[in-house]
Design goal:
Blueprint (H helix, E strand, L loop, with lengths): L1 H7 L4 H42 L3 E9 L2 H24 L5 H22 L2 E8 L1 H81 L20 H26 L6 H8 L16 H6 L2
Antiparallel strand pairs: 1-2
Helix pairs in contact: 2-5, 3-4
Length: about 300
């Protein structure tokens, strides 16, 4: 037992095996919960990815329209210069003159540019990150990180489960061997105690023999039998037989001690007189010998 405990590193293999089985059961339950959590996280990741594809990254928050004052000022200044130039040219030339027509063309173009600028002001648009898209993206990142962590946790738990199973199987073998050794140890202890008792009884017997004292030893303790020696049927048969014998004896005794005369012969023997007549007992038919006795 000492060598086995030292070599195998176990003290109580049965208790250690039960403890390992408890840890194995707890680890299996934890692994099942981890698989459920991984399935939930995977479904969450798929849902968030589908939502991200349908949500815009940015949303328009402000639109501001404004004129370009510098450009308008330049165009108006140009228009004023062209009108002044036309006025100067008209003082020297006719309106149909080529230079006057060119200036009129430039004045018309300047007016068109001013009108176009007034109709198409500068548009200032401000956009911001879409909050739902940002929330979905942050939740997706969290879910991916959590899924990775749960995967690592499940991998570690799988290793623990394999370790617990191997340890439980090994402890089961150790428990069987330890039980065998314990049984052998108990048998050896019982034999040792038996030998010690026998030796003590022999020593006491030798001492009594040397002192001339009668040594009486009960070889077997008395015990109450499970079944009676004679059954109730035997007692009934014996009782019936004794009753019949006793009743028959009593009948003969009563008959022999009775003073009454039963036959004519007893009357003749006792009274020494002839019998003139006698009546047979009721129910008995008259026989030929009885009829001969009728006198």
């Amino acid at each position: 037992m000492i060598d086995f405990t030292r070599d195998q590193g176990v003290v109580a293999a049965t208790q250690q095996r039960d403890f390992e089985l408890q840890k194995l059961s707890a680890a299996e339950a934890d692994a099942g919960q981890t698989r459920v959590a991984i399935a939930q996280i995977s479904q969450r990741i798929e849902t968030l990815q589908s939502k991200l594809s349908s949500l815009p990254e940015r949303t328009l928050t402000q639109i501001r329209n404004a004129d370009n004052p510098q450009l308008l000022e330049k165009l108006k200044s140009r228009l004023l210069e062209l009108e002044l130039k036309r006025t100067e040219l008209l003082t020297q030339y006719e309106p149909s003159y080529r230079l006057v027509k060119e200036v009129d063309q430039e004045i018309a173009e300047a007016k068109e540019a001013i009108a176009a600028e007034a109709q198409a002001p500068i548009r200032d648009q401000t956009s911001d990150l879409e909050p739902n898209h940002e929330w979905a993206r942050s939740e997706l990142i969290k879910a991916q990180v959590e899924s990775s962590a749960l995967g690592a946790h499940l991998k570690a738990e799988s290793w623990l489960l394999a370790t617990y199973r191997d340890r439980a199987h090994q402890l089961e073998k150790h428990a069987i061997e330890q039980d065998r050794l314990v049984n052998e140890l108990q048998a050896a202890e019982q034999k040792y105690l038996l030998y010690v008792n026998k030796r003590e009884e022999a020593r006491i017997g030798d001492a009594l023999d040397q002192g001339g004292i009668l040594n009486v030893v009960i070889a077997e303790q008395p015990r109450v039998p499970a079944l009676p020696k004679l059954s109730a049927l035997s007692f009934a048969v014996i009782g019936l037989t004794l009753g019949v014998a006793f009743g028959t004896g009593l009948a003969f005794m009563a008959d022999s001690l009775s003073p009454a005369f039963r036959t004519p012969d007893e009357v003749r023997l006792c009274l020494q007189t002839p019998v003139l007549a006698w009546l047979p007992p009721k129910g008995i038919a008259n026989t030929e010998s009885a009829q001969r006795r009728l006198l």
